[in-house]
Amino acid sequence: MTGDGVLVVGESLMDIVTDGTGRTTEVVGGSPANVALGLARQQVPVRLLTALGRDARGARIRDRLAADGVDVLDASWSLKATSTAHARISADGSADYVFDITWTLPASDALGDAGLVHIGSIGAFLEPGATTLEGWLARRERETLITFDPNIRPALLADRPAAVARFERLAAMSDVVKLSDEDAGWLFPGLSPAQVLERISGLGARLAALTMGGAGALLRAGEVEVGSAAPAVAVRDTVGAGDTFMAALIHRVLADPGLLASPTQSSVAAAASYAVAAAAITVQRVGANLPTAAEIEIAEGRR
Questions:
Q1: Total number of domains constituting the chain
Q2: Has residue 232 been placed in a domain?
Q3: Which of 104, 124, 238, 282 could, after both became Cys, cross-link 244 (CB 3.0–4.6 A)?
Q4: pTM for this one?
């Protein structure tokens, strides 16, 4: 990888979470912000270009991320008010969201010299920022790696055909694409997990990953396809699990360039094991409390 570290581009917001008892709390959220946090906790230099308001919530998001080493770029202060998501946690730990979000990006190309750019979630689909982001990616340096997690939010995607078309354009520009089984069901109804990965690989992704909750994950790189079972753990909630998996997968891509250049059964299996172990830690905690590299290695039994 060339360039200077990782740049994450996407939304940050305040999750207003109501749990099964009716108790409400506010926690820092947003899938791209969580990925940036997860990378920082794994000692990966990371910058975040997001959209925040100069208000108490925006300051709290910035301070929370900065405390773990995320560099929130100055261009992120672009909103009148910081976006929110009202999340209601079900008895099984899953979350339903209602969003109040605005997403914009600067007019000038801000990808700079990043060696890897991660995109995804609402920031990849919501206008006007989504079109700006797509234009930046189309003009990026050839050596820049792109990772993409669509983290589909159907409530925000009224035009399904347009959203699927945008997903496919972005996936075609990406080196790594990760989907959840819920994403896959919305994007490609009726396809099996193996068929979903074949479809993503056919669009151009060098590494495709499908997470399946308690059933683990399936990864495909080149002609190598590997499944990894999820460990049996006590689930507190699933908030941030997919973002944890994504951050861990990016960590493996950075640590092992051969994972994309010349994947083997062992390298793909190692990436799957690491990412699944990371996600299993997060689901045992309340909220998007992503693990450090040391915690993941302990969970894998490597320490």
A1: 1
A2: yes
A3: 282
A4: 0.92
225 belongs to a structural domain:
yes
Start-end of H helices in 92-218: 129-138, 160-172, 181-187, 193-203
| Residue 192 belongs to domain spanning | 6-300
From the centroid of its chain, how far is CA 290? Answer: 12
Q: What share of the chain is helix, strand, coil (3-state, %, to 5)?
A: 40, 25, 35
Residue pair 146/175 in contact by the 8 Å Cβ criterion = yes
- Let me know if 245 is exposed, middle or buried by CB neighbors in 10 A (0-12, 13-18, 19+): buried
Return the bridge partners of 49, or none. Answer: 9
- Residue 1: inside a domain: no
Q: Is the pLDDT of residue 122 over 80?
A: yes
**Kind of pairing, strands 46-49 and 71-72?**
parallel
Question: 185 exposed, middle or buried (CB, 10 Å; 0-12, 13-18, 19+)?
Answer: middle
Alpha-carbon distance values, 75 to 18, 105, 124, 171, 243 (Å): 31, 8, 18, 26, 23
Question: How high is the pLDDT of residue 2?
Answer: 45
Structure confidence by residue, pLDDT tens digits, 239-293:
778 999 999 999 999 999 999 999 999 999 999 999 999 998 878 887 778 888 8
CATH code for position 169: 3.40.1190.20
Tell whether 112 is covered by a domain: yes
